[in-house]
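Quick one - first record:
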Amino acid sequence: MDIYVLALALVGVALLGAAWLPHLLKRHPLTFPIVYLLLGAGLYALPWPLPPADPIRFPLVAERLTELAVLVALTGVGLRIDTRFGWRRWAITWRLLGITMPLTILAGLWLGQAWLGYGTAAALLLGAVLAPTDPVLASDVQVHPPGEGGEDPVRFALTSEAGLNDGLAFPFVWLAVALALAAAGEPMDWGRWLALDVMWRGLGGVAIGAVLGYALMHLIFRSERRPTLANSSDGLTALAITLLVYGVAELCHAYGFLAVFVAALVIRQQERDHAYHATLDLFAHQCEKLLMALLLLLLGGAVASGILAGLSWREVVFALVFVLLVRPLAGWLGLLGTSLSSRDRWTIAVFGVRGIGSLYYLAFATHHADFTDPEALWAVVCLVVVLSILLHGLSAQDVMERLDRRRRDRR
């Protein structure tokens, strides 16, 4: 059987399902990610000559595919947020970034060392890759498309957190890489890490995203040429924004994820009410669904191919504790003292979905440094992602509908 032709047919099936399944499953507890995860596992369990689904053997392929999926998702996230930017309006976001995420990283580091017996570099990497809320798989708990309203505190908090938390997670991923290289004999330069990986890459990403976003906003909406891009129905501009901003930021050694989200947010905030935002968001969402479908098929294939086979009971307990206790407790502590109701606080705390972003960070780190027992790291992270897909996917729709009903009744 020709593997190329078979792969084309499977991509066609994935595309068809990506367009059809979300509507079919709208009133069912199953979600698009769950179905594709199970479908991938089923396909790779059959004796077909499918492309290998092994991120351990092919970390660069895994890194590039997950990177593109996260980038497109970040563009959509930035374009969808209706809430005007402001330090007070975004107070919940700052709490999730400044309190919840560091607590989650520290918990992952401590559990990785004390419970799993990992070294400092591997344990820190485990905490850093599992800390961010995923912008790709959390669509069920995110805000609605541009201008549709319904932007409640829960959806806004989880969406804005997913857009910005890469700027805090990436420095710790780089620190884990530096510690792994130091263990291999390279000198550890704390000053370089602080100046480059923390200060410049973060602040530079924000600055580049803001400048390019403002320039692109003028090009798209306020160009003197007629007709402007905004008067077209072409959503390719969303992909152009993503690739251009990311490329410039990475060439300047800044965090491209952060720059892409900030650029999309600036474009939306500076020109809030134009209908073209819906076109851009729709195209970004379609690209995101395509990439998510392919990655979930591959993740299911990796599970069927035995990526979880080497898990010990300790690592299974770690994954359950991380999903069911660490993030919920860290989220609850980060939101103490806010005006949110107890129900809203718990919803935000619990639904910090782990997903494609975690796989990207792990692929990135293992491609840039040698960590002790990368197979165990991949197994643990994949298990956490699978558990998050299943547990959060089965409960998110029902929980969010209950919250929406209570808000309507209160009004």
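second record:
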Amino acid sequence: MLRIVVVGGGAAGLELVTRLGRNKRHEVMLVEPSSHHFWKPRLHEIAAGTFDAELDAVSYFQHAECNGYTHIQDAMTGLDRDSKIIRLRGMNSGPTKLQYDYLVMAVGAISNDFKTPGVSEHCLFLDSSGQAELAWQQIKQQLKATGTRRISIVGAGATGVELAAELAKVSSKLQRYRQASEFEITLVEAADRVLPNSPECMSEKVQEALKQQGITIRTETRVQRAEAGKLITSENEVIPADLQIWAAGIKCAEWLTKLDGLETNRLNQLIVNPTLQSSLDDGIFVIGDNAQCTQPDGSFVPPRAQAANQAATHLAKQFNRMLKDKPLQPFIYNDGGMVIAVGHDNAVGALMNNRLVLKGRLIRHLYDTIFRLHQRVLFSWGRVTALVVLKRIKAILNPYYKSF
């Protein structure tokens, strides 16, 4: 029985170990320092206090017991390719080394501050559930304050847009139920439009929805540095704020560039062949945002949740093919479109290869369904249905169920 070690318990890593663990043909281990899994596209909801961790978070230990894999709560620190060993931090008095037959890297990506002075000291990030929870604690303090509170969000990609819309909705909703401060939200983007990597028609609809919520949008505005309580633009303009959040760009962790000579790019992504194998080691696979995977047309697989889901499904099938001595197949990404939430009950989606752009409650239901499909891989349809029913009951009984 082969030992497959997967590093990283995000959407790609958790779905892969779930599929591999259930077929019981391999010894599967997941190395992940966190105790619970949170779907990364919804980290903005944790930051806004609207994510229901009680129903939607996944305990790695419980999930591992039910799905035939082992969770090692630790962080990878190094790699010895010749001996096929990964080095661990040794958390909780655990092992400091782990042997593997095949290694899968699925550690995802983080925000890119582009080495902008002051950003790491004066801005919040949303790269993990811990950072999102920290952001929520500070946002909660702003909600408790009196008067108007100013929040600046740098980066009008999916995370920045969804966070801005969620915070605007939270501020508006709370003022109807209790005395709370009003948020003055500014969304700062260096490109000439929000969602610069989406169809222009979609950008227009999203920008219109954000403006209707009272959000100020500053496009073609590049941040030169961050200071306490303010952002300084390249034009030396000051954008004051009581809270500053950085959601611009992506890169991968620096330690990925020090893994026993594995090839990386300028964003610290690991370079892979079409089969998702590392360019320098056939025994190491890479999936998710930390992989640079070239497609037949020369493009790269984008850093999206759907790409991570597809790669996990594909790689699970490839391990089964290896057991039958069949050749590995290349990974071909299928773009299923893009859906962006702009509040609790609204979303904008670009569908049918971006030929159709729609907006409204129906698209918001589609947005939620994508999350439920992720949960379907992890659980059964019965449990997913029960979760949906419980959330609806909870929402009816408590219009805003995060305590202050």
